[in-house]
Amino acid sequence: MTGKAGDTVIGLGNDAIARGALEAGVQFAAAYPGTPSSEILGNLATISKESGIYVEWSVNEKVAFEAATAAAWTGLRAMASMKLNGLFVLLDSLVNIAYTGHGPGGLVLVVADDPFAHSSTAEGDARPLGFYSDVVVIEPSTHQEAKDIIPYAFELSEKHGVIVMVRETTRLAHSRAPFKLGKISRTLRTAKFDYGLPLHNLPRPHLRHGELHARLEKVRKEEFEKSPWNRYDGPAKPSLLIITSGIAWKYIREAVETLQLQDVGILRIATISPLPKALILDHLKTTTEVLFFEEVDPYLEEQIRSLASEMPAKTIPKFYGKLTGHIPNFGEVDINLAIKSIAAVKKLTYTTAQEEYINAASKAPDIVPRRLLTFCPGCPHRPAYYSIYRAIKRNKGKGIVTGDIGCYSLGVFYHGVMRNQHSMGAGVGIASGLGKLDQFGLTDPIISVVGDSTFFHACLPALVNIVYNQSKAVVCVLDNNATAMTGFQPHPGTGLTATGDVTSTVPIERVLKGIGFQSVSVVDPFNIKDSIDTVYKALNSEESQAIVFRRECALITNRQRRQRQEPTPVFKVDTDKCFGEKCKICSVEFNCPACVWDNESNKARIEVTLCNGCGVCVDICPHNAIYQVEK
Amino acid sequence: MSNLTYDDPFNIVIAGVGGQGNVLSSRLIADAAKTKGYFVAIGETYGAAQRGGSVMSHIRISKHDVGPLIPKHSTHLLLGFEPIEALRVGSLYMNPESIAIVNMHPVHPIEVLTGQLEYPPIQDVENRLRSLCSRLFTLDAVNLAQQAGDPLVMNTVMVGALAGANLTPVKENMLEKEISKIRRLKEVNLNAFNLGVEAIKKNL
């Protein structure tokens, strides 16, 4: 992060973006963690003190962007970063702030899309959202560009009074490659509030909309039509023109080389919105066939097809892409698809190996068992779900569990306990609705499961709704004291800031009481009997109920144990007491990876190399067959 | 294979499961290649790494600015940290000329641990791997790591095996230098590296 100018380092695309922010002189950075974007702010947090910049994990992406807007309003360079889902959360603010402008400071929004939804619940594309929100969108293709484009984004933002969105995708954000460092900006501006610069759209918002369009048109004409960020490689009159953006450009370049095609041209667009219309039209005139190769949505394809309507009908090239079925309209694009789609359009055959080999290879892994995701050994979410699962069983199978976003989303794999999973906080809203359906005949108890970081992010309005509208939903907060899924970032319940400083804690149980839940219990999920009883009672109560399952993430406990050089407690199975095949409660029902099945003895066994020493299995076993080995 | 010229890009796939040090090993190989002036790209799939999922890294060593993903059936080398993961991933990325170095010590999936599914006979996995490549080197890297002082440095044994095989543009001394930069368990890691080098040289 703080390497010397001129040095070349190998890093993630996100490392490059964070470095670019430092070189741009960013003074205010805010974000909410989300894969694949989290390392951007994580990096900036590590050097915030020495560089004098302010860095925060905000409570959610909308607040992060609004806080960054405030800094830009006072003249500072400010940046918010997030995964695509965060952009969904802040759209209302984005559209409004795009109209008003954001004052003299540069305002940059970095959005990381996750094509293929490697670490997401849905795919999506930030580019059309940026277009509809009337912000400027640019997209780097390489790690070097990811770094260099950030200072450029700030310059554009300040020069034209526009919000600049930088889009990246997982394969740039989370791949590593070399990039050369530039000079870190040492200029620190003073925050100055201009009382003569109010930011609102009243009394006539539609007129501000017109002014915004004029600013964007200026960006198109003065910056993007001749932008060095766009590039064309290929002959003057290509037989096929491929139009692409982002890291997909690298796949296309390699595919054209692999297929040894001299007559194909590649137009790489980095200035995504507003598009350089004249530049694109000039290129469309040079060819008869165009292939669009882009991540997620056919954004360039639709925009450029509409642009082509300005051409004389006979000169409009033939278009291939997602709209014509030549590229799948879901999933991520990659080097294989690049080769395949060019070969299809050019009517070539290309294989990386003999067909016979590929067929044999595709059958070779048919003996390989699947590798399901599961909670880590010692994870407090497992006993929390187990308690809910057992309480519902005791309640004659009645109990509908709604879920949310986090490690505890793995509850969908835990005996199918969790019934839905959508966006941050959506489980609480859906539980709120389900809990109001008794007048229509749905009388089953409703349980809403949320994590601690998610609780603060987007659950509060729905929780208020449960109390206000007297929905019968029972709220269970799985509090493991971290945003564990994305890398243990702190949140308002942890008492720590992004930079590791001690701050006020917002206690979850007090928030729940303050909202008006009549009964708020805090239980330790490792105390399994108490946990099951608490959930069962809540299912059958007339009062509004909230339960906080509180126990630190096992990975944090482990790390601390290692630092203190403490041994992990050791547990064993007494094979005389173990009921074997007839029971299997510890391994199959509780489903801990460390409670393994020993095929030779046909009894349970605790696998020492996997066990994290939580000891919950001791209480799970109905036959008292599991015990802790004395030190 | 000649030690003087290599295909460009030279492709290495690492297949394993979360917690095996996959990401760290790929960074180490990349850093070693960088010291020789190569451009190195690493593509990783590790979203679910800490929760028992499969993890795959693509390492590409080139003179040019290459993309992070290796085309199907185009890896020169497969470094398998776990047998069935090596087979799963190898079947997609190897070709008849590929060489595989595989740790044959299994990490059982959750459903195998709990007795709901069976782990295939290890000899079957080995035979199938062998049928997919030109040469297969197998070793028990967990056992060697244990000899070195900690079963968790299995990944360092595997980097040692890669170095000892001498099949990539990254040489043994360059990799050893990167290993010696590891601060935690430095001696254990160096031992593990050397055990990996020896294990493979015995089989060459």
Strand content of chain A: 15-25%
Number of domains of chain B: 1
Proper CATH architecture of chain B: 3-Layer(aba) Sandwich
Largest protein-protein interface: A-B, 57 and 61 residues
Kindly identify the CATH topology of the largest domain in chain A. Answer: Rossmann fold
Describe the structure.
The complex is a heterodimer of chains A (631) and B (204). With 631 residues, chain A is α/β, with parallel strands linked by helices. Chain A has 22 helices and 23 strands. In chain A, strand 16, helix 17 and strand 17 form a beta-alpha-beta unit. Chain B has one domain: Pyruvate-ferredoxin oxidoreductase, PFOR, domain III (Pyruvate-ferredoxin Oxidoreductase, domain 3, 3-Layer(aba) Sandwich). Chain B has a six-stranded mixed β-sheet with strand order 2-3-1-4-5-6, with helices on both faces. The longest helix of chain B is centred in the C-terminal third of the chain and has 18 residues. Chain B is globular, with a radius of gyration of 16 Å. Chain B starts with 9 loop residues before the first strand and ends with a helix. The model of chain B has no long low-confidence stretch (mean pLDDT 92). At the A-B interface, strand 8, helix 10, helix 13, helix 14 and strand 21 of A face helix 1, strand 2, helix 2, helix 3 and helix 4 of B. Strand 8 of chain A pairs antiparallel with strand 2 of chain B.
